[in-house]
Design a protein that fits this description.
Strand content: 15-25%
Helix content: 10-25%
Oligomer: single chain
Radius of gyration: 32 Å
Structural class: alpha/beta
Number of helices: 7
Shape: flat
Distance between the termini: 53 Å
Largest sheet: 16 strands, mixed
């Protein structure tokens, strides 16, 4: 509604304060009708082509319908068909790369502050480009470097994603207002700019700059930087030594990089709270198949000791760290330090997809931990929780295919064990195997069937399972109901029963006491359509994708 109000400011699009509609913005720039009234403009050439293509399709359909409905069949049909085949209704798209606009189109927009030019090609000098810009987003920036005459002195945020930049600036200008620089997916960018001219930068995002090989050491001068995102910079092999001078940095993302050298100066990053280093091969003794090639120890003996990088890593982790993610880093049983005494504030630790066989002892000293990720640790065979300082929270051990035994589970810790098919023992809680059962409730009168068949892990050798489902008006007085129970010959059923509880009885039923050894499930569903199968039956167990809690085991 607000955008439509702006559009009604003037019949002349160039006199409006904001140009949100791509067609309006394109026409203003193409005809160079911009004025000092314009404060914001957005143009995405891909959207413009989509709009044009849809208009041509509608025109084609209109002509086709007219040809069918016309009373003058013979003569008008010939005219329509000849018109349809003409160039005026061609549905061929024009590529954004084939359309060029002039930089002079912005010359009169002296108050332009917000500008989005996605996949727009400009020709001409940037000398007269508006100097009032505060925010510039230009996906698909078409130049190899930002022109020297392109004045960005008031810019606060610069987003040049998917650009063809090879060098950001040939000579970095002084941009004292710039706080956000996002050059993500600039696949030709090999080096970052010199940061001496960007003293107030707070967020530097270089995600998937796959050719990036160097981060300038001047980054250490960015006293206000709080986010550095280098995700999937696959050719980046080392971090700058001056990274330790980033006293304000809170989040460092280097997942997917090929870092082989850890600067010990990282320990000086007193504000760092989040470190994501997923996929970095910290321990070279583990190849992609987790087997050592015969020649690798010989080569490493001349280059460096494999554990040296690990020792540097653990020793360089700053005291302030709260979240650490090292998923898929080929960490083995011998890769961990004796303790994590230098990380007293750590509350979130992700060690998923690593080839260790047992829970590292150093984790037991993390008293503030409330999440531990062990997802897809396929070599993990046992989970010893005795001595774990973790008081509450979650342990995600899902899809640990070799996990057979969990010892001394803490009653206040939630375990996620989906896909642990070899799990045969849960100490103090009796677990021999997972049990399947299937209940069916069939309303013959209304031809409705509900199936209830959960997989669960019993708490005791003798147990009671209680379930309550609210059917609403799908069960009524006089309906013919058939209830069946199938234990699938997996265990002995001593008793089974059911009770239909009417609304007037619910409060009394709710206040009733159940045995402490019972497992109770309750559904608040009044509409079962989300649980309906293609057969027309209703499966009352929520699917894993819809509700992961269905696969959580909660020790009591």
């Amino acid at each position: 509604m607000g955008r439509e109000i702006i559009r009604q400011e003037s019949h002349d699009a160039g006199e409006r304060s904001r140009l949100w509609h791509h067609e309006d913005a394109f026409n203003v720039l193409k005809n160079e009708m911009g004025t000092k009234t314009v404060e914001g403009l957005t143009l995405d050439m891909r959207m413009l082509n989509d709009v044009g293509n849809n208009a041509k399709k509608r025109r084609y359909e209109e002509l086709r319908d007219k040809s069918i409905l016309s009373k003058h069949v013979s003569s008008l049909k010939r005219r329509c068909f000849s018109l349809i085949s003409g160039q005026s209704v061609s549905t061929t798209l024009t590529s954004p790369n084939d359309i060029y606009l002039r930089t002079d189109a912005f010359k009169n927009m002296t108050k332009l502050r917000l500008l989005q030019l996605n996949y727009v090609q400009l020709t001409g000098s940037y000398e007269n480009f508006p100097k009032s810009l505060v925010w510039l987003s230009w996906h698909g920036f078409p130049l190899k470097s930002i022109p020297v005459e392109f004045s960005l002195e008031n810019l606060v945020a610069l987003h040049l994603l998917h650009s063809i930049l090879e060098q950001v600036w040939k000579e970095t200008p002084f941009l004292g207002s710039l706080k956000i620089l996002d050059l993500s997916y600039s696949e030709r960018l090999a080096r970052t700019p010199n940061f001496l001219g960007l003293p107030n930068l707070k967020r530097l995002i270089l995600k998937s700059c796959v050719s990036l090989v160097e981060v300038c050491e001047s980054i250490g001068n960015l006293e206000l930087l709080d986010l550095l995102d280098l995700e999937d910079c696959k050719t980046l092999r080392k971090l700058p030594r001056n990274i330790g001078k980033l006293e304000s940095l809170k989040t460092l993302v280097i997942l997917g990089c090929n870092i082989v050298e850890w600067p010990s100066e990282m320990i000086n990053m007193e504000s760092l709270q989040v470190l994501n280093a997923d996929g970095i091969i910290i321990n070279p003794l583990h190849s992609s198949s987790w087997k050592v090639k015969w020649w690798q120890p010989i080569v490493w003996s001349f280059l460096a000791t494999p554990t040296k990088g690990l020792e540097t890593l653990w020793a360089s982790l700053p005291f302030s760290l709260r979240e650490l993610s090292l998923s898929g880093c080929k960490l083995s049983d011998d890769s961990f330090p004796e303790n994590f005494g230098n990380l007293p504030l750590l509350s979130w630790l992700n060690l998923s997809a690593n080839p260790f066989h047992r829970l590292p002892n150093c984790i037991k000293s993390l008293s503030g931990l409330n999440f531990l990720g062990l997802y897809k640790c396929h070599w993990l065979q046992s989970l010893e929780l005795n001595g774990l300082s973790m008081k509450s929270g979650w342990i995600d051990a899902g899809n640990c295919r070799s996990l057979e035994k969990i010892m001394s589970p803490n009653g206040s810790i939630n375990l996620f064990l989906h896909g642990c098919y070899k799990l045969v023992e849960l100490e103090d809680c009796f677990m021999k195997e997972d049990y399947d059962r299937e209940n069916r409730v069939k309303n013959k009168t209304k031809d409705l069937t509900w199936i209830y068949g959960p997989t669960y892990f019993p708490y005791d050798e003798y147990m009671r399972w209680l379930s309550r489902w609210r059917f609403g008006n799908q069960l009524e007085v006089g309906d013919n109901i058939i209830i069946t129970f199938d234990g699938k010959d997996r265990y002995l059923v001593k008793e089974c029963g059911f009770k239909i509880v009417y609304h007037s009885d619910e409060e009394e039923e709710h206040n009733g006491n159940s045995s402490s050894s019972s497992i109770v499930e309750e559904s608040s569903h009044h509409d079962f359509q989300a649980l309906r199968l293609s057969t027309g039956e209703y499966f009352l167990c929520k699917r894993f994708e819809e509700n992961p809690d269905q696969n959580l085991w909660f020790p009591q």
